[in-house]
Specification:
mainly alpha, transit peptide, PROP1-like_PPR_dom, repeat, TPR-like_helical_dom_sf, PPR_rpt
């Protein structure tokens, strides 16, 4: 009995001592409180880690309920698109435009990372995806390109960074463009002339002439080719900075090096002189355009006409329209309206009617814009009734002429060639007696 009771007593004593020790540790504030808090925080962190490790990105959860516009965009995808590219684009398109930007970027990043891990895309796949996004003008194209530049499978080169910087420049996100440029240099990719030209054009459009000039000089110092695009970007920078004389000097320098500026560069310089009313500068640029072998169109001629009209040189403006007719071009409504507006400005109605008469005699039909301007001018002069009477007389005259023409055609089909010749001469005499609207109004 004793041998059986000893272990029992020992176990009770050990339990009591263990309980006492545990109670003592629990009652001690220095050795139990802080470790307990640390253990609780450690447990919480461990649970969070387990939750993040067990959580998986659900590919099918993205784009499960597309809208009608999104369905229409998906139906418009190229039928030759590979399935792995189509799957990604479908889910990119279905990202809700109403989502928060941070949430959208996070979802897009997880979507692209999952696609890269599961599909193992090549550079051609990336390019197909971005081409489709660009075709549908997706606002997420930039984010996809940014992510692609970080992936080894994309095999990024200088042109990819050039495209991204060009997009940033159009969006006027200069800091983003500079960050992309520094990231490209950090990867050891060489900076070429095309990249620097894009940067120069970006700073030019942003109004930073100093930075544009620095890059222009850097292109020369690096020994890179100074071609038509480089000079054209710098000329546009001077034009935007309203330094037109500098722009002309640079164009002359281009001519010395047998480099011809582009049509848009000349047009921008001519437009700048035209809007300032500098007729001498506009005529000088217009002559340079023809000397460069560029055939002026009606838009370039309208800019020259506008310069003369703003300078109150109406005779020179009308000479431009005559030269247009001699060159086989019909003066556009814009040119006619500009000249009529200049005549109204100096209150010369007779000159305006003589100008219109000259146009009508040469077969030029006056369009809606100059007609409305002329009607407003007559209304302000209070001669609307006289104009209406002239129009009625012209309508009757034209109706009579139409009847005469019908009869002449009828007799021409039945008479001999000799009689027809006489009839045509008579009709010719009648047609010469027709009076145009402008000449009739001027006579009135």
């Amino acid at each position: 009995m004793i041998s059986l009771a000893v272990p029992t007593l020992f176990s009770l004593n050990s339990q009591i001592s263990i309980a006492a020790a545990t109670h003592a540790r629990a009652s001690s504030p220095q050795c139990a409180c802080v470790p307990a808090r640390q253990l609780a925080e450690a447990d919480q962190q461990q649970q969070q880690q387990q939750a993040t490790t067990t959580a998986r990105f659900r590919w099918d959860a993205v784009g499960s309920d597309p809208s009608e516009n999104q369905k229409e965009a998906i139906r418009g995808l190229s039928p030759k698109l590979p399935n792995r590219c189509r799957a990604l684009i479908t889910r990119v398109v279905c990202l809700s435009p109403l989502q928060d930007e941070e949430d959208k970027e996070e979802i897009l990043g997880a979507l692209l990372a999952f696609w890269v891990k599961s599909m193992k895309p090549k550079r051609a796949d990336w390019l197909l995806v971005m081409r489709e996004l660009a075709a549908m003008e997706s606002p997420l194209l930039v984010e996809v390109l940014e992510h692609a530049l970080l992936e080894d499978s994309f095999e990024a080169n200088v042109r990819d960074y050039t495209k991204l910087i060009h997009i940033y420049g159009k969006q006027k996100r200069l800091q983003k463009a500079e960050d992309a440029f520094h990231a490209m240099k950090a990867r050891g990719l060489p900076c070429d002339q095309v990249m620097l030209t894009v940067l120069m054009d970006m700073y030019s459009k942003a109004g930073d002439l100093t930075r544009a000039k620095e890059i222009f000089e850097e292109i020369g110092l690096l020994g890179l080719p100074m071609d038509k695009r480089v000079y054209g970007s710098m000329v546009m920078a001077y034009i935007r900075a309203d330094m037109l004389d500098k722009a002309e000097d640079l164009i002359s320098e281009m001519g010395d090096q047998q480099i011809i500026a582009g049509r848009e560069v000349y047009k921008a310089l001519l437009r700048a002189y035209s809007y300032k009313g500098d007729s001498e500068g506009a005529q000088r640029v217009f002559d340079a355009i023809q000397f460069a072998g560029i055939v002026p169109d009606t838009k370039l001629c309208a800019l020259l006409v506008n310069a003369y009209c703003l300078a109150d040189q109406i005779n020179e403006a009308t000479i431009v329209t005559r030269n247009m007719r001699n060159a086989g071009m019909t003066p556009c409504d814009k040119c006619i309206a500009l000249i009529l507006g200049a005549y109204e400005k100096v209150n010369k109605l007779d000159g305006a009617l003589a100008f219109l008469t000259e146009l009508e005699e040469n077969g030029v039909v006056v369009g809606q814009e100059p007609s409305q301007l002329l009607a407003g001018w007559f209304r302000r002069l209070g001669v609307v009734q006289e104009v209406e009477q002239v129009l009625k007389d012209l309508a009757v005259d034209r109706k009579d002429n139409i009847e005469v023409d019908k009869k002449s055609n009828f007799y021409r089909s039945r008479k001999s060639n000799k009689v027809v010749g006489r009839r045509s001469q008579t009709v010719g005499r009648k047609s010469k007696s027709k009076r145009s609207f402008a000449s009739s109004l001027q006579h009135k």
